[in-house]
Amino acid sequence: ELRHLRWMLQKDLLGQDMFLIGGPGPMRRQIALSYLELTKQETEYVSLTRDTTEADLKQRREIKDATSYYHDQAAVRAALNGRVLVLDGIEKAERNVLPVLNNLLENREMNLDDGRRLIPHTRYDALEQEHGSSSMASLNVLRVSSRFRVVALGLPCPPHQGQPLDPPLRSRFQAREITYPPFQDQLQQLIEQYPNVS
User: Fold this and answer.
1) Taking a C-beta distance cutoff of 8 angstroms, is the pair 81, 145 a contact?
2) Rounded to whole angstroms, how far apart are CA atoms 19 and 177?
3) Is the C or the N end of the chain the one with fewer CB within 10 Å?
4) Cα separation of 24 and 80, whole Å?
5) Residue 10 to residue 12: CA distance in whole angstroms
6) Tens digit of each residue's pLDDT (9 = 90 or more) over 170-184
7) Which region is the signal sequence (predicted)?
8) Overall average pLDDT of the 77-92 stretch
9) Region 93-112 average pLDDT
10) Alpha-carbon distance 58 to 39, whole Å?
11) Whole-model pTM?
């Protein structure tokens, strides 16, 4: 596990998004959450299903006090606040969601339903320098934090059921295979951990 955590730290320092791929089980999620706990980073978690839509990642319309308004979802909150977005089950993402993910991963951009637009921190900072901070609000652009990262968790398809990742989407990630240690190694570890259990 330490090798995986070290690899994740290297990719994080390089500003790269990560894809942990491996067989069924909780190990990929445990490693990702252990890394976030060790580095004390905030996270936004999305469990992807075949029913996940663009709105589940971007903004959802809600009604409060007879007024309709847009509520930012996990991907937007993570991008704006410099959190790590964990996408669990990326092999289940439907085709209509992939363009949104692609644009967010490659360009750090996203058009929001309320008329605002996320843009990468480098472009935002250049615009702010050119136009001044007071006029940035009128441009309806929001700054994606330089600390924003994406960690995707998924199964290899095939042999498992799900959509094979689009080559453009796959190329946005640095991938690492997460495999369980052999049964004998796990058994030995349990024996060492609990020597008095017969």
Assistant:
1) yes
2) 9
3) C
4) 32
5) 5
6) 788 888 888 877 777
7) none
8) 92
9) 86
10) 26
11) 0.83
Tens-digit pLDDT profile for residues 135-166: 777 788 889 999 999 999 988 877 666 666 77
Mean pLDDT of the chain: 86
Pairing between β-strand 141-144 and β-strand 174-178 as defined by DSSP bridges: unpaired
Q: pLDDT digits over 13-39, tens only?
A: 999 999 999 888 888 999 999 999 999
State the pairing for strand pair 110-111/141-144.
unpaired
Assigned token pair, 92:
């289940």
For the chain, which residues make up each domain, given as ranges?
1-110+147-193
Residues 54-79 as b/e (b if ≥16 CB within 10 A, e otherwise) read bebbbbeeeeeeeeeebebbbbbebb
* 86 alpha-carbon distance from chain centroid: 4
The CATH number corresponding to 1-110+147-193 among 3.30.565.10, 3.40.1000.20, 3.30.420.150, 3.40.50.300 equals 3.40.50.300
Q: Supply the DSSP string of the chain, one letter for each residue.
A: -HHHHHHHHHHHHTT--EEEEESSSSHHHHHHHHHHHHTT--EEEEE--TT--HHHHSEEEEEETTEEEEEE-HHHHHHHHT-EEEEETGGG--TTTHHHHHHHHHH--EE-TTS-EEEEHHHHHHHHHHH-GGGTGGGTEEEEPTT-EEEEEE--TTTSSSPPPPHHHHTTSEEEEE-PPPHHHHHHHHHHH-TT--
